[in-house]
Design goal:
Strand order of the largest sheet: 2-1-3-6-12-13
Bound molecules: ribulose-5-phosphate
CATH architecture of the largest domain: 3-Layer(aba) Sandwich
CATH class of the largest domain: Alpha Beta
Distance between the termini: 36 Å
Shape: globular
Length: 227
């Protein structure tokens, strides 16, 4: 008898699979979230048998930094790194072209910065994250606090309904506005347009920094999508 894998087990599966994309001795870019936590766990296990498996990591959040350091992994400031071979991160939604919505964990700005340092973005996700069109997941937008109401009005003109995420201040001291009611059919143009709204720090559409690879956790195992 086979038992279905839980979402947590699917995340662990892709977290382990992502190790194959990290060159021995490299510095790896590390995202944020429950799926990335599994990748960090796998990295910690790999270091036990091979202490030189990675030279260190560049992290996208305080949360991931704490987890990496707890496992004895050196975290380098992103300012000290000019490029990374690979950046591993999860997504809230990913489409069939590798475009993503990210920021469910409020770490989108640092995620975009670290992703931009990397030659390759490997997205790790369970299969529930794969969508035809981005926008069902409320779109996270990091905003300067004084601009929040203005940004919400700008989204209303685009047909979206924005709400400030309660009780959340980002690692950069800003607010997150979550926007529902959008159907993002042209992610690259959308990202460029939203970046023009004053007070928007980062929009959670990752088009310029889309994934080149997605390791998708499915009941049949890890499915690799390349874009
Ligand atoms: C954090 C993110 C995460 O990658 C995204 O929310 C997915 O998280 P999880 O792996 O917990 O489902 O963008 O800002």
């Amino acid at each position: 008898m086979t038992t279905a894998l839980t979402q947590d087990q699917l995340k662990a599966l892709v977290g382990r699979a992502a190790l194959d994309y990290v060159k021995p001795g490299a510095i790896v870019g590390v995202g944020t979230g429950s799926t990335v936590d599994k990748f960090i766990d796998a990295l910690g296990e790999a270091l036990q048998s091979d202490p030189a498996r990675v030279a260190g990591a560049v992290s996208s959040s305080v949360r991931s930094t704490q987890r990496l350091e707890a496992l004895g992994i050196r975290v380098l400031p992103s300012e000290s790194v000019t490029s990374l071979g690979v950046y591993i991160d999860g997504a809230d939604e990913i489409d069939h072209s590798g475009y993503m919505i990210k920021g469910g964990g409020a770490a989108l700005t640092r995620e975009k910065i670290v992703a931009d340092l990397a030659e390759q973005f490997v997205c790790i996700a369970d299969e529930s994250k794969l969508v035809q069109t981005l926008g069902k997941f409320p779109l996270p937008v990091e905003v300067i606090p004084m601009a929040a109401a203005q940004v919400i009005r700008a989204f209303a003109r685009l047909g979206g309904e924005g709400k400030v995420r309660e009780g959340v201040i980002t690692d950069n001291g800003n607010l997150i506005v979550d926007v529902t009611g959008l159907s993002i059919t042209q992610p690259a143009q959308f990202e460029a347009d939203i970046n023009q709204i004053p007070g928007v720090v980062t929009v959670g559409v990752f088009a310029r920094n889309r994934a080149q690879v997605c390791l998708l956790g499915t009941p049949a195992g890890v499915k690799t999508l390349t874009f």
